[in-house]
Design brief:
It comes from Corticimicrobacter populi. This is Peroxiredoxin. There is one protein chain. This protein is of the alpha+beta class. It has two domains: 3-33, no CATH class; 42-139, 2-Layer Sandwich (GMP Synthetase, Chain A, domain 3), CATH 3.30.300. It is built from three helices and six strands. It has helices at residues 42-64, 104-118, 120-125; strands spanning 3-7, 15-19, 24-27, 68-80, 88-100, 130-139. The strands form two sheets. Strands 1-2-3 form a three-stranded antiparallel β-sheet, with no helix packed on it.
Length: 145
């Protein structure tokens, strides 16, 4: 895996990242830090990556279990240390998973497996932060097709 990050120039703190898979994303700083608020902060990207990694795992685990998962959203709330380096100290993952007749136990197990075994981002962030999670299940069995 590879990535290149390049400063976009002297007029602010905008950085552009190019990934090895051929994608581009921007990151910027807050105005009080010299940025222009044109893109997410780097730490926001890190938090989003953890959410994406965990949600990916949950959907994949449920699909492999032949469950009829139709949606997965994870909302993250993070707390950071007061002093530098301002690492994450606590991250809460609130999953909302929807599907037809999904067993709550299967969804909770998928989330647990993601955090304990598969999600590389959670494994790394868990070195400095307490990670906890909750699950809300939405049964779409009664919705019209």
């Amino acid at each position: 895996m590879e990535c290149k990050v390049e400063w976009a120039g002297p007029s602010g703190m905008l950085f552009v990242a190019s990934t090895g898979s051929g994608h581009v994303t921007a990151m910027d700083g807050a105005p009080e830090g010299g940025g222009n608020n044109l893109a997410p902060r780097p730490m926001e990207m890190l938090l989003a990556g953890a959410g994406g990694c965990a949600a990916y795992d949950v959907v994949l685990i449920l699909k492999r279990g032949r469950h009829k998962v139709e949606g997965c959203r994870v909302e993250l709330q993070a707390e950071r240390a007061d002093t530098d380096p301002k690492v994450f100290t606590r991250i809460r993952f609130a999953f909302t998973v929807s599907g037809r007749k999904l067993p709550l136990a299967a969804v909770e197990r998928a989330v647990q497996l993601s955090h304990e075994k598969y999600c590389s981002a959670s494994a790394m962030l868990g070195k400095t932060a307490t990670l906890d999670w909750s699950v809300t299940l939405i049964d779409t069995s009664d919705t019209a097709d």
